Amino acid sequence: MPIPVPSNRPKEAKLFRNNRSQAVRIPVEFELPGDRVLIHREGDRLILEPVKTPANIIELLAAWRQEPPPGPDDQFPDIEDPPVRPENIF
């Protein structure tokens, strides 16, 4: 199947409901790679960008460097974990 050439002209798309979310049918010529997008608003516009997954370990580490450092809510909680006691199972 040939890949459609994207057009610079706007094209009308259909909005519909999917459970409690609003969804949009994206025409094939505007199809995005992958299965997830980032969405943000600029005025009245909604901007969709494909989520780029790192292609190798170097890109993954570079992406992790951009993350904010862990805060107090990101730490493991202290839990009471008593040692195991022998059980009589007979």
Characterization of the model:
This protein has one helix at residues 57-65, and strands at residues 15-18, 21-24, 37-42, 45-50. The chain has a domain at 15-66. The protein starts with 14 loop residues before the first strand and ends in a 25-residue tail after the last helix. By secondary structure, it is α+β, with helices and mostly antiparallel strands. Helix content is 10%, strand content 22%. The chain contains one helix and four strands. It has a two-stranded antiparallel sheet. A two-stranded antiparallel sheet has the order 3-4.
SSE layout and pairing:
Blueprint: E1 15-18, E2 21-24, E3 37-42, E4 45-50, H1 57-65
Comma- or semicolon-separated keywords:
single chain; 90 residues; alpha+beta; two-stranded antiparallel sheet; two-stranded antiparallel ribbon; 1 helix; 4 strands
